[in-house]
Input
Amino acid sequence: MTELLSNYLNGTWQTGTGAGTVLTDPVLGTELVRVDATGLDLAEGFAFAREQGGKALRALTYKQRGALLAAAVKVLQANRDAYYEIATANSGTVKNDSAVDIDGGIFTLGTYAKMGDTLGDKHFMLDGESARLGKDPLFQSQHVLTPTRGVALFINAFNFPSWGLWEKAAPALLSGVPVIVKPATATAWLTQRMVKDVVDAGILPAGALSIICGSSAGLMDQLQQFDVVSFTGSADTAAVIRSHPAVTQRSVRVNIEADSVNSALLLPGVAPGSEAFDLFVKEVAREMTVKSGQKCTAIRRILVPEALYDAAAAAISARLAKTTVGNPRNESVRMGALVNRAQLVAVREGLEYLKAQASVLHDGSKVALVDADAAIACCPGPTLLGVGNAAGSDSADRIHDTEVFGPVATLVPYRGDNTDHALQLIRRGQGSLVTSIYGSDPQALAQAAIELADSHGRVHIISPDVAALQTGHGNVMPQSLHGGPGRAGGGEELGGLRALNFYHRRSAVQASTAVLDQLSPAV
Output
């Protein structure tokens, strides 16, 4: 029987009492490990994290907590090879795609470690300047941010078992808030191994970092008034979380990242074969295939002037045709697998749903797999759809409403050089994590960015002058906001020090100037 992974709760490693769920290799179909959380004393574990882990973290300064994060980075870097092996086996990703998750997570953790230095030897943060409460400046108001005296529960998605952990845990731990992570079952192995390495290294105080693998049943029931919960996943599950008594009755703070039908926009005036056009085509094809399209930030809708529809379809299809698909252990393979059979079925069903309103421009189902059995491997080829003309862009509501979570995108033409029509179509996504805009005219790019900023968490502009510097449509950098309004969940993560706000409570201290002077950064 396969190994049963341990959970870390209440400061001890514990195995569930059930048979567990088997994790499999999505390419070879072989069994890997089992995960199970049956029989864990959740109430005791949450209390331990809240009381022991939280107290110990809050006793440290931001600088000291940053040093703990830096020490964790060293442990993770020392074990990178093992993480890559797990990612290949459990997620079916090629090396470059594993790097987005593994190295991206470690980089984010390291970035917040450095931020701890900038915050210095203090236990709270000032929020803005003091304000007079009357004509006499003797009595004033000063807003402060102090760490919440609760626990941070993370219910994470399957596509980023490393980055999904550390991009949330880094600002939480730096804030002085203990973390309990519940990774998605399908890819929990990598998250569990990383947590185990950090815990076993004895870096963090007991109760500061815990992990529960398996079912999420009962987790929300443990949350109390000063706890927080961050969820990444489907809008349906997000609705269940928002309606839970912990949120509706106990006012637990919640952050949601849900479905997102992201877009890429090619502005008018860009000629086929130009540098801006080629950057657009390259980025679209890359975003369709990185991690087999299993990214919440992946491009789903590709907007071009109607006159460039055929040229864009041909250029993107040509790049997709060069993408080798199959076993990530083969060095010639550039795109691996979806995480399991259920996801493969979902992608195929989603494709059929979209094809009722769109035609196939590049057919991924005809791709010959490398070193993989099509009857076993969860390896779809990249598929480009298109709606043909601007009228089709208006009427094909499914492409604006439906996210197929795989290597699938739809080419959407807009009328003539009518940028307003393009912006209107993009907004039909009802709020997205990211949109990217391509062109060469700085004024037109800036204007489009501001027009789309209200409905997107991030606007990524790619012009020829930053071709070698831009970080990628789908890459989430710790310095920039990650999240989005509307259907994207309405949440916010990262954004530099802004991420710490979620784990702090804001309070106004009203006192004499002499008292407020004691609330200095050196305290």
Observations:
- The chain has a mean pLDDT of 96.
- The chain has two domains: 42-258+492-516, 262-477.
